[in-house]
Amino acid sequence: MSTKPPSNDPPCPRCPNGGDLVRHGRFYRKSQKKWIRRWRCNLCLKTVSRATSELEFGQKKRQFNQSIYFLLCSGVSQRRLSLGLNLHRKTIARKLKFLAIKCRFRQNRFWLKYLEAPIERVQFDEMETSEHTKLKPLSIALAVCEKSRKILNFQVASMPAKGHLAKLSRKKYGPRPDDRAEALNRLFESMSPILTENAHLRSDQNPRYPVWTRGTGWQHSTIKGSRGAVTGQGELKKVVFDPLFSLNHTCAMIRANVNRMFRKTWCTTKKAEALTDHLWLYMDFHNRILT
Ligand SMILES: [Zn+2]
Description:
single chain
């Protein structure tokens, strides 16, 4: 005898008209040691289960997802994870990619909240890191809500090497594109729906910043930089009151919790995309769990 699934089950996801689903046995998921009900569509005769529409569909090591997510946001490197969890390095790298997609989804849902209650005060700045070598620096433009310290958005961009490395960098790797302006542009564009019309933005005294806030209706005030505190990951400042505290504290947390962002580390980013993925993970962890 066939029984209809509970009414909260969607109709058949495989055919456009959505046929009725009837019970059709079960299958055993080895990784989680549990049985999962399978349904069959009356129209297309294909079988579906709750797993069909999951992002984890087809994964064989899904039981590790949560620990990998937690540890990647807690300063553990990919290689140490693979050693600790007895998984291949490639599995960890793939998990990072997968988890980034998942965190992106979650953070996009988070954004809907801001659409209902736009933000008034935002702090933004750029952090520096590198891909492969210090000769190939990357810049991370970051915007943080002043009140809640939640990360609103970030953008990764390549930038040319500075100072004594500039000449060597050009010699070894040729001219390096400077995408920082474009990244800031994308950052501000993405934030415009979630800021109030007369939002107040704060940043350091970088001369490039006022260009973006001009003509937007947002107020922009700049704060003179001060010396870093020894304990502040080079981000927290040695002053009694830091007007950019929310931003600097968030940057310090990124430096402390994302292995490739540590101040002194031999664990470097190899690809800018992987850095972006890792930052999505951290942003999600930061916004949901830490703040
Ligand atoms: Zn169907």
